[in-house]
Amino acid sequence: MNISNQQMRFWSPEVRELEPYVPGEQPKIQNLLKLNTNENPYPPSPKVVAAVQAVLADGADALRLYPDPDASALKQAIATQQHVDASQVFVGNGSDEVLAHIFKAFFLQDQPILSPDISYSFYPVYSQFFGVNTKTVPLNEQFEVEVADYQQTNGGIIIANPNAPTSIALSLDKIEQLLQGNPDRVVVIDEAYVDFGAESAVALVNKYENLVVCQTTSKSRSLAGLRVGFAIAQPHLIAALEAVKNSFNSYPIDRFAIAAAVASFEDQAYFAEHCQKVIDCREQLVADLTSVGFKVLPSKANFIFATHPERDAGELATELRAQGIIVRYFNKPRINQYLRITVGTTEQNQRLVDTLKNQIL
Amino acid sequence: MNISNQQMRFWSPEVRELEPYVPGEQPKIQNLLKLNTNENPYPPSPKVVAAVQAVLADGADALRLYPDPDASALKQAIATQQHVDASQVFVGNGSDEVLAHIFKAFFLQDQPILSPDISYSFYPVYSQFFGVNTKTVPLNEQFEVEVADYQQTNGGIIIANPNAPTSIALSLDKIEQLLQGNPDRVVVIDEAYVDFGAESAVALVNKYENLVVCQTTSKSRSLAGLRVGFAIAQPHLIAALEAVKNSFNSYPIDRFAIAAAVASFEDQAYFAEHCQKVIDCREQLVADLTSVGFKVLPSKANFIFATHPERDAGELATELRAQGIIVRYFNKPRINQYLRITVGTTEQNQRLVDTLKNQIL
C-alpha cells in the first residue's frame, strides 16, 4: 500500500527501513501441485487427532484457561524423544520464533555473526530486526560450507544443516571443528530438515557449552499448520531464551499445539516410517530428474536443488506453474539457475517428471 | 537457575539485564478455585468445537500445510464483527504478541512514551525489551486516568481501558481528548477487558489516524487457551505492524486457532449472552463483598479490585490460598492493600464470599 510521508511519521524510524521476509506463496488453486514450501506429503500421526479431540472434551471447556506458559509436557515429550533432559529444551511458536529469540538472546555482540552467503533468507531479516551485525561467508564452488572460513573474529555463527535451499548436509566432524574453533561464541545449527538423512548435532549438546540446535515439527512431523519449533542446548543457554521469551509473550503455544505436538513426539514409529518414505521418494525423484538432464545437488532434505544445463531456471518455474505445479525459484546471485523442489509422494513426483519430460523439456 | 559469569559470556549483554514478565500462576491442584488470571468461567461458543473438528477431517491432513500467513479469514471475521474493513485488522499470537509488535512499530521514538503508573505490568517489560524510553504518569487518588496529565511531550501513549488491575474504565470523551491532544503520536488503547461494560474506542478508528485499539479473544470469548489477539487501526498503522510481524514470524497463528476464532466471531449471540452473564455475576459479587466490609473499585472488567479497611491484603491472599482459592496480589506501591479477583460463576463467587465470611474475616 501507499503510505504518505505524513502518515509515516507514526512509525518507529527503524521500522520504516525493515525489509520483511516473504514466505513461499500459499495459493488456493484446484488441482495445484504445491512443491514450493517443503511441506510433508503425508499426514501427521493418527495420534495427533486423538490428542486434539481430548482438548475438545466438555464443549472445549479447557480453552477457557491459559495454556501452561512453560509447555512442560511438550518439553518433556521432546526431551524423551531427543534423549536429553527437559531443562535442555526450549519451545516456541514455530522454529521461526525460536530463531528470532536466538538472534536476540545471543547475537547482539560487538562483532558480526557469520552465516553462509546462501542460506535461509530469514536470517538477514532477523539481523535487521534486532540490529545484529552480520557478515556472510561464501559457500565453496560446490555450495558446501567450508568450516575453515569461519575461523575469524565473530559474534556467533548460524548455519542451516542441511542447508537451505542447497539441501547439502554438513558432517558432525565439521560441526565439531566449528564448535571447537569458536569456544566463546554461540554456534547455532538450524536443523529444520535434519530428519531426512543428515546427522543431528543434538548428540553434541552435552559436550559443547556453546551449541544451540534448532528444530521444527513443520517438516518431518507434518505439523506445519501447528507452529511448534524447539531448541536444544545446555541449561545456561536455554535460560537466555526463556528470559527473551518471557519478555515478549508468556504463552506462545496454544493448548491444541501442545497436545498435538506431544502426541507426535510419542509416536516414534510413525515418524521413522514416514521420514524413510520421504527419503525413498527423494532418491527416486533425483534419479528421474537426472535422467531428463537435470543436475541435482546431493540432498539430505525433503527438497532438492536442481539445475538444467540447457534451460533457464526462471523460465522452467514459469512453465511448470502454467501446468499447475509450483516450485520455488530464487532470483539471487549464484542460485538463479536452480529450482528448489519439495519432495512429494511417488504420484506427485511422477506428475512433475512427466510434465517436464512431455510438455516442457 | 545459577548461571556462572563464565557461562553468561554467551548471552547478549542487553539480555543479561532483562526482567521478564511473570504471569499469574497456573497450579494443578484439585478443587482449586482459580480467580487469579481473569479467565472466563464459561466455555467458548459450541461452534468453536465444530470448527476445530473440521480441521481434523481426513486424519488432520490439513496440518501438513502451513496456515495462511495473513490469516485472512480471521481478519475478515473480526472486521465483520467490529464493523471495520479487513484492511484495518492486525492479528497476532495473543494480545501480548500484538502489544509487543506495537511497541516496536510505533514507540521507538526520541521522546518517552507515557503510561499510567499502575497498569498492565507487561508494558515496562516490552519497553526494556525493545529499548523504548518510558515515563509513567500517576493515576489520581481514585485510581483514575487524568487525561490532562498526558499533555506533555511524548513518543506515544498506551492506556489499558478498562485499566488493569484497577478495573476502572475511561470514557470515549476522555479518549478523544487524548487523541486530539497528541495528533503526531500513536495512542494505543488496550481493550483486553472492554466487552464487560466499557465503551470501545474502535468506534473512533475511522476518525483518528493516530489510534490503535488492541483486543483479545482470551477473556470475553473464553479462548485464553488459543492465543489470538488483534489490533484495529487505519491501514497506514496496520502496515507498520505487518512489517514488524513479517520480520519476526511469518505464520504466528495456527490452523486450529484461525478456525476456532473465526467460529467465535461468527457467534455474536453467544458472545453477547455470556458477556452479560459475567457482568451480572460481577454486580452480585461486588454487592456481596461490600456487605462483608470490602471497598470495591467501580469495575467494567471481568475482575474486581478490592481492599478491606481492617485486613492486610497480602494476608488475605495467603489465607484464601490455604482454603483453595487463588486471587492475584501485587506487592507494589499504592496497590499493596488490594486484591484483584476474577469474576467467576454464581457458585464460584458464592464459595469465595462464604469462605471470606465464615473462615477468614
UniProtKB/TrEMBL annotation, chains A, B:
Identify residues that carry N6-(pyridoxal phosphate)lysine.
K219
Q: Quick one: which pathway?
A: Amino-acid biosynthesis; L-histidine biosynthesis; L-histidine from 5-phospho-alpha-D-ribose 1-diphosphate: step 7/9
Cofactor entry: pyridoxal 5'-phosphate
- Positions of the Aminotransferase class I/classII large domain: 31-356
Give an example GO molecular function. histidinol-phosphate transaminase activity
Q: Which reaction does it catalyse?
A: L-histidinol phosphate + 2-oxoglutarate = 3-(imidazol-4-yl)-2-oxopropyl phosphate + L-glutamate
Give the domain of life. Answer: Bacteria
Keyword list (alphabetical) reads: Amino-acid biosynthesis, Aminotransferase, Histidine biosynthesis, Pyridoxal phosphate, Transferase
A GO BP term, please? L-histidine biosynthetic process
Record SUPFAM superfamilies: PLP-dependent transferases (SSF53383)
- Supply the EC number(s): 2.6.1.9
Q: Where is the signal peptide?
A: none
Pfam families, from UniProt? Answer: Aminotran_1_2
Q: How does it assemble?
A: Homodimer.
HAMAP family cross-referenced by the UniProt entry: HisC_aminotrans_2
PANTHER family tied to this protein:
HISTIDINOL-PHOSPHATE AMINOTRANSFERASE, HISTIDINOL-PHOSPHATE AMINOTRANSFERASE 2
Looking up NCBIfam families in the UniProt record yields: hisC
Similarity field? Belongs to the class-II pyridoxal-phosphate-dependent aminotransferase family. Histidinol-phosphate aminotransferase subfamily.
Protein name as annotated: Histidinol-phosphate aminotransferase
Q: Which organism is it from?
A: Acinetobacter brisouii CIP 110357
The taxonomic lineage of its organism, from the top, reads: Bacteria, Pseudomonadati, Pseudomonadota, Gammaproteobacteria, Moraxellales
